[in-house]
Specification:
208 residues, mainly alpha, two-stranded antiparallel ribbon, 2 strands, 59% helix
């Protein structure tokens, strides 16, 4: 990575911190905060939110016929999602132990906190539960895949790809043969120590 690339990466981190501060200020303005991982609302906020709840019957009546008809198709994805969830968890439980890579914490990506919003009826709350699970699961799977990619192939593509994962920006440039041979082990070691959680009892492994 060039000096300019490091500078840009540093600016991105700085901007992310600024964004986090703005988000926290907005939370305060809306009357809630996080305490020990739980949402706390200021007194009277939930009652005020409840005033904006639309009953489930009215919610369905306001939806178009096409929207109601395709709902089963949307929810049919739950089967593949559950399979992906189980398979990715099993995959990292086996392979990451062998590679001595810290496992991805599923709870860091999948959150079920929208049910506390009293302005949602039960259908909207169910939709939020489903969307939160689906998108959180994809993010969870992506992080597992990105750690795998860093371990085996930390090389950028020649073609531009849309919205690469965060690890991608640190990868070696396409065509940097010398860098690949000299720094591959450094990428792997970085994975093993980045969370301060390596598996000393596991031995090295070779890719099949």
């Amino acid at each position: 990575m060039t000096t300019r690339m490091r500078e840009i990466a540093g600016e991105i981190v700085h901007l992310q911190r600024e964004l986090d501060r703005e988000i926290e200020q907005r939370r305060t303005a809306l009357g809630w905060k996080l305490k020990a991982g739980l949402v706390e609302f200021e007194h009277g906020i939930t009652a005020e939110q409840r005033r904006w709840r639309l009953g489930a019957a009215r919610f369905v009546a306001r939806s178009s016929l096409a929207t109601n008809l395709v709902a089963p198709v949307i929810y049919s994805l739950i089967g593949p999602l559950l399979l992906l969830d189980a398979w990715m968890s099993l995959y990292q439980a086996i392979c990451f132990r062998v590679y001595r890579i810290p496992r991805v914490r599923r709870a860091d990506y999948i959150a079920f906190d929208r049910g506390q919003l009293t302005y949602l009826n039960w259908i909207e709350a169910l939709n939020c539960l489903y969307c939160g699970y689906a998108n959180g699961l994809i993010a969870y799977a992506r992080e597992i895949a990105s750690r795998t990619e860093q371990y085996w192939c930390p090389i950028k593509h020649a073609l531009k790809i849309s919205d690469p994962h965060q690890r991608y920006y640190q990868f070696l440039e396409y065509g940097d043969a010398e860098g690949y041979r000299q720094r591959l082990e450094a990428f792997r070691q970085g994975l093993r120590t980045e969370d301060g959680n390596s598996d000393p009892e596991a031995g090295p492994a070779d890719r099949p």
